[in-house]
Amino acid sequence: MSKLPQGWVSVNIADVAEVNPRKSVDLSPDEFVTFVPMAAVSEITGAIATPMRRPLRQVNKGFTQFAENDVIFAKITPSMENGKAAVAANLTNGIGFGSTEFHVFRSKGAVLPKFLWYFIRQQSFRDNARKVMSGAVGQQRVPADYLRSHPLLLPPIQEQERIVAKIDNLISRSARARSELKKIPSLLAAYKSAVLELAFSGKLTANLRGSNSDTTSGLPEGWTIQRLGDISEIQSGIQVGKRRSGQEELVEVSYLRVANVQRGWLNLDEIKTIFVTPEEKARLLLAQGDVLMNEGGDRDKLGRGWVWNGEVDECIHQNHVFRIRMKPATLPPEFVSHFSNERGQQYFFDEGTQTTNLASISKRKVAALPLPVPPFEEAVEIVRRIERTFMWLDRVAASHGGASQLLEKLDTALLSKAFEGQLIPQNAGDEPASALLERVKAEFVAQPRKIQSRKQIYQGQTREKLMAIERTLEQVLTEAKNWLPAQDVFQRCGIGDGASTEEIERLYSELRDLDLAGKLETEAVNDDQGRKIYDRIRLKAV
């Protein structure tokens, strides 16, 4: 943005929040605190869904500490990319401990925790953070320094409250819409099943007969029950991997596998070929209107299939796929396929046989499948009505998919506008963020600190640690006389895991002073794919 909204100010996250503040807890070892493993943070809602309670003594070492209203942010792949971040709320005794793979943000007072949480939950923020991850494959992490230096456009605190309230409202509405949309696929599937039930009971075409005209058999007048084998020719396919003699004449031909034959459709994304004899090709060649039905696979997938309509020239089928060719004027192939996919499922499940890894159904059992057979003209009309209804339902499904994608884009656009000052109007009466920021900084610096004697500070420190505490950033870089990774510089200046906030702030102050004086050079070090691994720094040559 070239121009900031009224009252806004551009800052880095470190200006408004401590990143990974030092541990500080004033509880007895047996008092309880909240424990949050990575799995407890929902990547969908960004809430701590399943917190636990643990005695302090069990979690005080080896875990990350945070406090009420801190923001926790997964730093490791893939949890970070998946959006595992949360505002720590309702913590037992106001204290929480969790996975060491969390970074912790603690507001200094100029930024609302939930405003910051929404900011780091943005897909764009996570995408950019992914680019700077470092570490071994599967163990890559977002550096804390990247988070500290990340820019943030900061609104007045009153506007932050209005922005958060607006986002809460809009996100909850989109969540409700998403919840309702998730119900649609199952509703459509139930609708299709209901249509097929009406079709095979004769009720879908009852108007053609004036009434249902049930007979004592329970079938509509003119309907009969026949076995599939009596009204069709059933053919098994070619055995893949069959041994051949070197004398046979072979031709290459496309063939269908179980993976190609789905329930109600054909997946033709990958068609394989096989060498067969001309006689085998002629015997197994598919013709338009053939019903394809799976012979083997998972037990609940036996008998699934659809109708071949000549989608691939000269194609045969393997032995785990049956080809069923209807006799003239018996049943349309679509009628048979719809029936076997719907009512036939239970029959195939019951009649199939199971080995350790594979279920199958014999040609004899397939031939014995009982089918309701209406007059041919009525069967054709039944298929027409099924397909007309299914086409309408498929259009509804396509619209559902588009609406779901649109919701995701709306959420992304909503957050983008929020953090650019375009979601709600500014209020001239709000205290500018810059004024609040200066006041908060002053209050933060003036906060009462626990005074330690020099003896307490240095007690137990090694000679190297004591020397590091006294060394300035400029001294460290002068001694190095070359590039140093930023992390090494920090360590040589005495900034480690146990460093105090004051020590860290002192180092960052030195960095800014050297940079403003034109004495500092920084350079990103990238991996082979051009992804940033870390920063290195050195003093400019005089």
Q: If you had to describe this structure to a student in words, what would you say it looks like?
A:
- The protein is α+β, with helices and mostly antiparallel strands and 542 residues long.
- It folds into three domains: 10-155, Adenine-n6-DNA-methyltransferase TaqI, Chain A, domain 2 (Alpha-Beta Complex); 224-373, DNA methylase specificity domains (Adenine-n6-DNA-methyltransferase TaqI, Chain A, domain 2, Alpha-Beta Complex), CATH 3.90.220.20; 454-539, Arc Repressor Mutant, subunit A (Orthogonal Bundle).
- It is built from 17 helices and 27 strands.
- Helix 6 (157-201) packs antiparallel against helix 11 (376-418).
- The two termini are 37 Å apart.
- This is Putative type I restriction enzyme specificity subunit S.
- Residues 5-173 form the Type I restriction modification DNA specificity domain.
Task: Describe how the helices and strands are arranged.
Elements lengths: L8 E4 H4 E3 L12 E5 L15 E4 H4 L4 E4 L3 E4 L10 E3 L7 E4 L3 E6 L5 H8 L2 H9 L12 H6 L1 E4 L2 H45 L22 E4 L4 E4 L15 E6 L4 E2 L2 E2 L5 E5 L1 H7 L6 E4 L1 E2 L7 E3 L7 E3 L3 E6 L6 H10 L1 H8 L1 E2 L4 E2 L2 H5 L2 E4 L2 H43 L14 H14 L7 H5 L4 H8 L2 H8 L3 E2 H7 L8 H16 L3 E7 L5 E8 L3
Parallel strand pairs: 3-8, 13-20
Antiparallel strand pairs: 1-10, 2-9, 3-4, 5-8, 6-7, 6-9, 11-24, 12-21, 13-16, 14-15, 17-19, 17-21, 18-23, 22-23, 25-27, 26-27
Helix pairs in contact: 6-11
